[in-house]
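Please check this:
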Amino acid sequence: MSARIAVFAGSGDLSVPTADVDLAVMVSLTDPVPETPQTPWRVRSIPYVRDSAHLKHTATMGLTGARRAAKSQGFDDALFTGPDGLVIEGSIWNLGLWDGETVTWPQAPKLPGITEQLLTSGLHRIGVPTRPRPVVVQDLARYQSAFASYSWCPAQPLASVDDISFANRSEVFTLLGKAWDSVRWETV
């Protein structure tokens, strides 16, 4: 069973910044989703920056619109880019890149995903280096493999971003699986 808890303004005058607002809590329960990766995704880069990107929040209209636009063009999902051309994050996932030795996480204003953080910890535990680094879309061609990291799947392979394809060598996914298996769940 998966549980999601959201806290939001239930009542009060939101147009008055100093007014008291009653908080409401919404709990939703869903069946668990298997962590098994799907067929590698084809992803479209789309300029979009989330409001307060470092916070998880319910303002998802923009990211949903970007994801729908990518899907309407035949892609599986959207990869957000900033006005400066930097790769930011996917619609509900963080991007991981493999160069044969190191996992790179694009450095930009984004939500630091829990799965990315846990995977990074696991990678360090098994001796695989990681680094945050600014990445522009054209830089993606330098990487052998790319993956989406999110709560449903720690390492969902990406087949391509726009017209840049990835070899998706199995050794990185073996390492990512070992890293994920090394996460100490009792401390999470």
Observations:
- The mean pLDDT is 85.
- The chain is about 20% helix and 35% strand.
- The first strand starts at residue 2 and ends at 11.
- The chain has two domains: 1-32, 34-187.
